Amino acid sequence: MTRGKAVEVFKVSKSFGDYQALKEVSFTIHENEFFTLLGPSGCGKTTLLRMIAGFDIPSTGSISLFGTEIGTLPPHKRRVNTVFQSYALFPHMTLEQNIAFGLENLGWDKARRKARVAEMLELVHMTPFAKRKPAQLSGGQRQRIALARALAPEPQVLLLDEPLSALDLKLRQAMRDELRTLQRQTGITFIFVTHDQDEALDMSDRICVLGEGRIQQLGTPSEIYEEPENRFVADFIGATNFLDVEVLSVDGPRARVRTPMGIEIEAAQKGVSGPGKATLSLRPEKIGIEDQAAGEIIAGTVTARNYMGGFTHYTVETRGAVLRVSRRNALSQAESYAIGQQVRLGIVAGSARVLGQ
Amino acid sequence: MRRGFRFWGLVPAWVLMAVTLLAPLVIVALVSVAKRGAYGGFEWDFTLAPYRDILFTAGWSDELEFDPKYVLIIGRTVLLALITTAICMALALPVAYVIATRGPRAKALLIYLVTLPFWVSMIVRVYAWLIILGNDGFGGRLWQFLGGEGSLLFTPTAMLIGMVYSYIPLMVLPVFAAIEKLDPALLEAGADLYASRWTTARRVIVPLAWPGLAAGAILVFVPALGTVLEPMLLGGGKQITMGTLIQTQFGSARNWPFGAAIALVLMALVMGVLIVNALRAGHKREAEA
């Protein structure tokens, strides 16, 4: 399946005075894709979104929308709409008027506007609230209206700037599902900015991890989590154990490494050229404990325990390294291990990953 | 103890109000119903003649005829104040917008510059305009260059320029405060939803800056109604307003009771504007609650 290119960002850099927010960033977003820009604050993700919207102009480089260069067009001449972090609903207008605002500026006639506003209110389940003002709504309802307002003018791309950050936890989870559904229903390309890795993994078709003004990795959620290409990505997405290891031999996507615990294991790799020092990322949930221990076995002592409900996190001191291990609480508390208890840990071949040097 | 403080704590304020506001007001009210003194001043003799004189003039045989002279002056004053307010609104909005959207340091500097004229006496500033608008001044030259007839000074236009100059900071400040409070994302949302700068200004900024514009309108309109300096100096005294009228009655015309009556009519006008405004604001708040 070949999909059209919705947005092409080519060698875009952006400086604010002496500060370089983005350094020659290039990537392509496909049509009908849920694309996420993920990174810590100050990584340049919001700057990138604002440049696609037209609120900021790239210092160098170009941005195209469906093949047309838009890098320097003012925002009102771009067929993209934004859902703002603060929603930015017009407080003096009713919800209807808010949604109709973009349509009026595009010159839609009254009948068509009315039909579209009704359709949008229906889409976000807000029809009974049409005549209310934004101040009379809850956070989640405002969020929905902001979505309806941005989707109404049929944008070629919808930009979402951390739209869930102002909502409480339960509502955030529900809105994730709604956003995903809305994206499938409308078939519009979504570009979603967040610093929340869970949101990114949950919703995205592809994730672009940004850090220090550069793309750290671009891939599907499972690629980003399972096959992090560098320490930044492995550290930012999920929790992990970093181990200083010695690569003994490399065989295609596999490498044999000696760990500080003394054992040798097979690990996945990409970008390691040959023997030498390297960093190994070993996710806590990939280490088996006691009855789940398989593969290479090592012994250790539990030094800390954090009960999280569905999971229990253990800190286990082994000879040569302190490992974080997490175990799903599948059966009962009988499976829990006390501080000071001796436990067996197991690492299966291929479950750890050698990071690029 | 608390109760006592509440009462005694307010005493200084009450005394101040009584001495500086209430007492002069009572005196003016009393003068306005007194008889005109032969050589200025007044005599204690109750009469409503000063109020009657605003509308009527005594004919040859003491019969009263309606005389629109003073009604016209009152009308002209109100019109002048309205035009001043409208021009101040139109000019202050873009100025306030530009200031409100600058960085914090530029913003502080620009606001300081707006308030700078208050540090110089009003009379000195209006005199400065006398020079600027004179035939040899920058304003006068510009007027001639633009094809203006005669000299600019001592015309209603000159007076208006002076009034707009004097009162515009009172409009810029509240409008700035209103615009500065706006979420900048609202303006971006306007542009994002295909509104040109002009449409965003008209449909987003003006409605949301409205409380500031309304406050500024009161702050400009009220003193503009009673203005004396600009009509006297820049209008050359040819354009009589309520302010200059009151001034002449107490001065050269030596008709204190009539001056006091006009002053109270002016005050009634101002109170009327303020009351209407307060009622409207109250209604709006009720409607929104």
Q: How would you classify the helix and strand content of chain A by structural class?
A: alpha+beta
Beta-strand content estimate of chain B: under 5%
| CATH homology superfamily name of the largest domain in chain A | P-loop containing nucleotide triphosphate hydrolases
The largest sheet of chain B has its strands arranged as 1-2
What fraction of the residues of chain A are assigned to beta strands by DSSP?
A: 35-45%
From the coordinates shown, what is the CATH architecture of the largest domain in chain A?
3-Layer(aba) Sandwich
Taking all residues together, what is the mean pLDDT of chain A?
Answer: 90
**Into which percent range does the helicity of residues of chain B fall?**
over 70%
Largest sheet of chain A: 6 strands, mixed
Using only C-alpha atoms, the radius of gyration of chain B works out to: 23 Å
List low-pLDDT spans of chain A: none
Class of the largest domain in chain A, according to the CATH hierarchy? Answer: Alpha Beta
CATH domain topology of the largest domain in chain A: Rossmann fold
Please give the alpha-carbon distance between the first and last residues of chain A.
34 Å
Helix content of chain A: 10-25%
Task: Write a concise keyword list for the protein shown above.
heterodimer, A: 357 residues, alpha+beta, Rossmann fold, OB fold (Dihydrolipoamide Acetyltransferase, E2P), six-stranded mixed β-sheet, five-stranded mixed β-barrel, 8 helices, 20 strands, 37% strand, B: 289 residues, mainly alpha, MetI-like fold, two-stranded antiparallel sheet, 12 helices, 74% helix, globular
Compile the SSE list and pairings.
The complex is a heterodimer of chains A (357) and B (289).
Chain A: E1 5-16, E2 19-30, E3 34-38, H1 45-53, E4 60-65, E5 68-69, E6 80-83, H2 95-105, H3 110-123, H4 139-151, E7 157-161, H5 169-186, E8 189-194, H6 197-203, E9 206-211, E10 214-219, H7 221-226, H8 231-236, E11 241-251, E12 254-258, E13 264-269, E14 276-282, E15 287-289, E16 296-307, E17 311-318, E18 321-328, E19 342-347, E20 353-355
Parallel strand pairs in A: 3-8, 3-9, 6-7, 7-8, 13-20
Antiparallel strand pairs in A: 1-2, 1-4, 4-5, 9-10, 11-12, 11-14, 12-13, 14-20, 15-19, 16-17, 16-19, 17-18
Chain B: H1 2-32, E1 35-36, E2 42-43, H2 49-55, E3 56-58, E4 64-66, H3 69-100, H4 104-115, H5 122-133, H6 138-145, H7 156-181, H8 184-192, H9 197-225, H10 229-233, H11 242-250, H12 256-288
Antiparallel strand pairs in B: 1-2, 3-4
Helix pairs in contact in B: 1-12, 2-12, 3-7, 3-9, 7-9, 8-9, 11-12
Membrane topology (chain B): Multi-pass membrane protein
Family (chain B): Belongs to the binding-protein-dependent transport system permease family. CysTW subfamily.
InterPro entries (chain B): MetI-like, MetI-like_sf
